[in-house]
Amino acid sequence: MDTILQQRTLTNGGIVKAFEESFQEYTGGQAVALSSCTAALHLACLMLFRPGDEVILPANAHLSAANAVELVGGTAVFCDVQRSTGNIDPESVLSVISDRTKGIICVHYLGIPCDMGHLRQICRTHDLKLIEDCALALGTHYDGRHVGLWGDVGTFSFYPTKHITCGEGGMLLSSSFDLAEKARSLRRFGQQERYGDIQIPGLNYRMTEMQAAIGIEQLKRLPVFLRQRLLNMDQIGRGLPDFERVGGSYGVSIFPRGDRNELKRLLLNEMVETSVYYPRPLPRLSYYKHKSRQYLPAFPNAEAFSDESLCLPVGPHLQAKHIKHMIESFRKCVSHSSVARAS
What we know:
Elements: H1 2-5, H2 14-27, E1 30-34, H3 37-48, E2 54-58, H4 63-71, E3 75-79, H5 90-96, E4 101-107, H6 116-126, E5 129-133, E6 141-142, E7 145-146, E8 153-157, E9 170-174, H7 177-186, H8 209-239, E10 244-248, E11 251-255, H9 260-269, H10 286-291, H11 300-308, E12 310-312, H12 320-335, H13 338-342
Parallel strand pairs: 2-3, 2-4, 4-5, 5-8
Antiparallel strand pairs: 1-9, 6-7, 8-9, 10-11, 11-12
């Protein structure tokens, strides 16, 4: 790190390029390093959509995807997810397509790949663009191809809790060299080169050399991280076979059949921290609730994930003894809570 700090360029330099090349080698696509996954989503929407366009995305997702659509003048239109995977439901997508629909954003929930074959067919039939939100899915493949390369653009997150981290940061991935080059320009004010001319205005979404150096080392360790994550996920599945659950390399969402919030509190007392992906369906957030004419009864599965499920961690820092404690605590807390009475 001292060597990096002694360099003249601390942002978007040679180490960033080296990180992009490593990411490209791992995934097989054109990679553009950025300041965050939100930046990648924003640039993807800037490149693919225009004001007035409608873009369909799951009601159960991080709000950054919907915000990216709105920030380019588009309209986020929500659809339901599959109860079995937490992923966007292709049939629900079909039910909300209109003459103004120009694209779909799918989210690979907990690292579980969406049904990309079905989604690509929908996009071909209706001439739609496709963005893959891969924030929870680095290392995930669908039919032999890394996620993020099935659509026009894929977006990845390097936030501290993700599969690898740079402290903060993101990556835009595409099979299209032209889209990748356009994103490289947009991340630096719209300029192809420093102090160069611009064709369209861009933003400052550059990654620092320090972040990229961390990313390079993290990417080297990714296979080990993924192996441990999948082992932890399998251990949770074996330890809690009698509960409905959805599991991937990012976590295991469990439907405990009762007061989820009480169970969450009890588990915290046992030193087991849990999460909810995601705490509120997007149509329930004030901005989208007031703007959209879609209402929550239209998204029963997305609402169930938000209101009923509890996500247990599977991160590589967790050892077998930690997972064992988590399972034992889960069963203990269920038996002493209203979850048991509701079962």
